[in-house]
Amino acid sequence: MLADYMNLIYKKWCVFIFLMSIYSCSKDNIKPEPPVLEDKTFEVNESLVSVMNHEDSLLIKSVENYVIRSNDSNYNPLDSWFYADSLSIYPYFELLKNVRESNRIQVLALTSEKGYKEIKLAFLNGTNIETILNIPALPSKDVGYILLNYYDTYRRVKSQQFGNIRYFNHSTYQINPEEVNKMLAFGKQLSAFFKISELKFDYYIFDNSKDLYATLGYEYGPYMYDAYQANSFARPADLSVFIGSSTAYNPHELTHLYVHSFIGATNPNVANPNSLLDEGFATYFGGAQGDYSLKQSTLMALNYYKLHEVCFEEIENLGFLIEDIVNFKNVFYGNFVKYLIEYYSPEYALQVLSSYNTDEELNTLLKSKMVNDETFNEFVIRILLTVNPPESEKN
Known about the structure:
Layout: H1 2-29, E1 41-44, H2 46-49, H3 54-69, H4 93-101, E2 104-113, E3 116-125, E4 128-140, E5 144-147, H5 150-153, E6 160-162, E7 165-169, H6 177-194, E8 201-205, H7 209-215, E9 218-220, E10 232-235, E11 240-243, H8 251-266, H9 275-286, H10 294-308, E12 321-322, E13 326-327, H11 328-343, H12 346-355, H13 359-368, H14 376-387
Parallel strand pairs: 1-2, 7-8, 8-11
Antiparallel strand pairs: 2-3, 3-4, 4-5, 4-9, 6-7, 10-11, 12-13
Helix pairs in contact: 6-8, 8-9, 9-11, 10-11, 11-12, 11-14
């Protein structure tokens, strides 16, 4: 009897151990689900609640409605309550961008300006404020408030038309006609290379990145004070270039517009080009950050490689900055694009751009270009050295 009892205890213990092991394994494999847009917490600062009038609550409701519905494929942000003018087909790109990147949104304040109101939103990840964005709005008899495109409406300056470029100069800099002519000529060069019509685009000039981002409505953001990495960007969605360095000539950002337009014209089933090839073409044609040409940035990369004895065992090792300015990965892919153009043909490089959409596909292409027994480290250096040999090795 005792033996049967002990045997029963033993069996129950084995079952317990087995169940615990299953639980332990399953627990290790559980990954937290990323927050979905509909579950975002939209909070109102408690100090506002007691002083908010009916019109203010309508304004907050309009923004909350946008936040909840903006990820719905059937939702049209150009609805009657949402303002859009002739300058932008995407009237609140910055708001949408921050909504997608945050998991909590809080209304911090409401302020009155001349003829309109501003709602101040904090975008948070957990308890950390990532961005503070100001959104202007006009009162409307029909819908309470109409949200406005900040940079188009309340920071607008008189545009200057030069050929197919419309300049909006928000800086203290006087537009240099020589730089304009270089930009126009460069656009013709890109049009011929990508075999698409010359683009008509808008070019916004600011003194620095802080002014650029403030004009887009940012009161605080991760790129507002960055002297190099975010002093310019292209917005292909509405063919716009934003420059925070007081110049009318920026070939790197214009190349991004042509790359995206090329993909849209030749491969409409693909929403965007591969980001690495996108940066590669922009770096090949327009140089790297900090106004370094491809040749200059490549020499910087080679010097960094020799000084720090870097070993690139895999592609992930390419993602670092040289002197906190130049992205090594962009320099490599700029040279890889040059390699495709000069060792094969421009047509082959464009075929790669339109065909290799994912990073996995691009990695397969890179491996196919490596010679027998060549390590990835040797391949990277071969691409950099072969395409841009240092001055000392040219003779």
